[in-house]
UniProtKB/TrEMBL annotation:
Alphabetical list of InterPro entries matching this protein: PAP2/HPO, PAP2/HPO_sf
Parts of the chain that traverse the membrane: 20-40, 66-91, 98-116, 136-155, 162-182, 188-205, 226-249, 261-284
Protein name: PAP2 superfamily protein
Domain annotation Phosphatidic acid phosphatase type 2/haloperoxidase: ranges: 98-203
Top-level division of the source organism's lineage: Bacteria
Gene3D superfamilies the UniProt entry points to: Phosphatidic acid phosphatase type 2/haloperoxidase
Keyword line: Membrane, Transmembrane, Transmembrane helix
Length: 297
């Protein structure tokens, strides 16, 4: 009787492959907790967030109309379709565990967002009239988790374009929810953190299983995608920090110009958060030789 091959024990490289995604998952959870604590439970955070929220209605009506189709795309049928598509693509590549991981990522991220939103209170600190908690953004979580799932199942040669396309889609959805004042910037950043957390947890589990990657997979992500995302992350991150500090020093903001500036800073921070999360996900792979262990992923 032929025995199924046993996965090899974790060596030093394997432990590094496990440590990196676990640390990234912890960092994502820390971002979620810190964002919720500062922007939901402190008066300064609420004032900064609401200054940006008030600046959102400075946009022209035509812009709001143009972005509505992005939000209309996010629905229960859309999520169901994303799950089915991910499973079909993974199964077509004979990557059975990735099919299950795709479902886990999509369901886990979106359930997490709804649970956090339901249990997290927004205290009345005399800083905002909108006391109903909206963190994390459900629409953005759907978009970010779909983007992360696409990156999870994408062949190596497509990982760079898929990463950029997914980041653009997630950011567009997050900014759209801000533009029509459904969500604050902190809600969108928290949604990115939730999706990233589940992605890294799945990568950690794949490292533990010590399964090989399919033919055509290599450790290094696409250099062009990394460069573009890095430039975007640095440029928008710096702008977001500078404007964020300026807004914090001038709250409460009553002038229209100050609200618009706060909104620009919030949008910049959202773009930077998506770029950083995508960079980390793009680089986070269990780098095992395909010839070392049994086939399949």
């Amino acid at each position: 009787m032929t025995m199924a091959p046993t996965p090899a024990p974790l060596d030093a490289r394997g432990r590094r492959g496990l440590t990196a995604p676990l640390l990234a998952a912890l960092a994502s959870a820390a971002v979620l907790v810190a964002t919720a604590w500062f922007f939901v439970t402190t008066r300064l955070g609420q004032l900064i967030d609401d200054a940006a929220l008030s600046g959102a209605d400075a946009g022209p009506l035509t812009l709001t109309q143009a972005i509505l189709p992005v939000l209309d795309l996010v629905s229960v049928p859309f999520v169901a379709g994303a799950v089915v598509a991910a499973v079909v693509i993974a199964v077509a590549q004979r990557r059975w565990s990735i099919a299950g991981a795709a479902v886990l990522l999509l369901v886990g991220a979106n359930v997490t967002t709804q649970v956090v939103k339901a249990i997290l209170p927004r205290p009345d600190l005399d800083a905002t009239l909108a006391l109903a908690n909206s963190l994390p953004s459900g629409h953005t979580t759907v978009a970010a988790s779909v983007a992360a799932t696409a990156l999870l199942i994408a062949p190596q040669r497509w990982r760079g374009p898929v990463a950029i396309g997914g980041a653009v889609y997630a950011v567009a959805t997050g900014l759209a929810t801000m533009a029509i004042e459904w969500h604050r910037a902190s809600d969108v950043v928290a949604a990115f953190a939730v999706a990233a957390f589940w992605y890294f947890i799945i990568e950690a589990a794949r490292s533990v299983r010590r399964r090989s990657l399919p033919r055509g997979y290599r450790g290094a992500p696409g250099a062009n995608a990394v460069t573009l995302l890095s430039v975007v992350a640095v440029a928008t991150g710096l702008l977001g920090v500078v404007i964020g500090v300026f807004t914090a020093l001038n709250v409460p903001v009553y002038e229209r110009s100050g609200e618009v500036i706060a909104y620009v800073g919030a949008c910049s921070s959202v773009i930077a958060a998506s770029a950083v999360a995508t960079l980390a996900m793009l680089a986070m792979r269990p780098h095992h030789r395909a010839s070392s262990y049994s086939a399949g992923s």
